[in-house]
Amino acid sequence: MSEFEIIEKYFKNATGNTGVSVKVGIGDDAAVVTVPEGMQLVLSMDTLLSGVHFHSDTAAEDIGYKSLAVNLSDMAAMGAVPVWATMSMTLPDIDHVWLKDFMVGFNGLASEYKVDLIGGDLCRGPLSITIQVHGLLPCDTAILRNGARPGNLIYVTGNLGDAGLALKAMQGAASLSDHDQRYVINRLNRPTPRIHTGIALRGLASSAIDVSDGLLADIGHVLDLSYTGAVLYMEKLPMSDALCRLEQETAWELALTAGDDYELCFTITPEKKEEIENRLNAICPVTCIGKITEQAGIRCIGTGGALFKPAGTGYRHF
């Protein structure tokens, strides 16, 4: 089967039926889309490599889901609505069952958020998937990393550290019950993009970032661009029951430094606290975990006000 026959069979009809105008989709030299008046285009791209971002024995359906989810998480952090995606894939060989399952995972999430796959590329090589997502938002409403100010409150969505615990369990470095292991592995393979939360944060959050490399690493980007520091309170960190069953400092370490959670970390002014919590908790749980400071750096405050010093800061790509 040729490259074009594979594209026709598995990729051409991948659509979320957005209703946003796609003038030319898969099948021509390039896609042609119309950006509605008064909107700005938001672009994000991520690559997932076998053996780096997922285990070689990860189910194809989970890989398809996650390859889109990690890009949608970037859209959420900006407050954007995802509408289109392009995909570049290298495959060691043509496995029709794998491709079918991959697209089941991809299409399931694309349909949920009404994202159209409008183009891409396919070639032979080690397994990797690169996806670029195109989103829309009203002009000049993007939530950026550089807006955190001293006195702002720091929030996160959901729970932290589950994906890191899953990796430890898969590597034999943590012993979990069957229930906890299934839960954390699902959190690793099927992160929830916080799209609706990101949209709700427009005009309310002073800054935002998605937690992909670990809370300390990612909030560090916000602090660097905002020329500020932070105080984080360990006993406020939102953690699942699976994480809470670990020794306290081990759980804190994972919540602070483990990547792949794809939750949102955002800052707000204190006077917006009640409005934010009322609005967002109807969408997903949010927790205030600290505050922005003038003093540079991150201070982690543990039990009784003692300083907690984690061993690392997060995932490093190089």
Describe the fold and architecture:
It is a single chain. The protein is an alpha+beta fold and 318 residues long. It has 2 domains: 3-138, 60s Ribosomal Protein L30, Chain: A; 145-305, PurM-like C-terminal domain (Phosphoribosyl-aminoimidazole Synthetase, Chain A, domain 2, Alpha-Beta Complex). The protein contains 10 helices and 12 strands. The protein has helices at residues 3-11, 60-78, 96-112, 162-170, 178-189, 195-200, 215-226, 241-244, 248-257, 273-280; strands spanning 22-24, 32-33, 39-49, 81-91, 116-124, 128-138, 153-157, 207-211, 229-233, 263-268, 286-293, 297-301. The strands form 3 sheets. It has a 6-stranded mixed sheet, with helices on both faces. A 4-stranded mixed sheet has the order 3-6-4-5. It has a two-stranded antiparallel sheet with strand order 1-2. Strand 4 (81-91), helix 3 (96-112) and strand 5 (116-124) form a beta-alpha-beta unit. Helix 4 crosses helix 5. The longest helix has 19 residues, at 60-78.
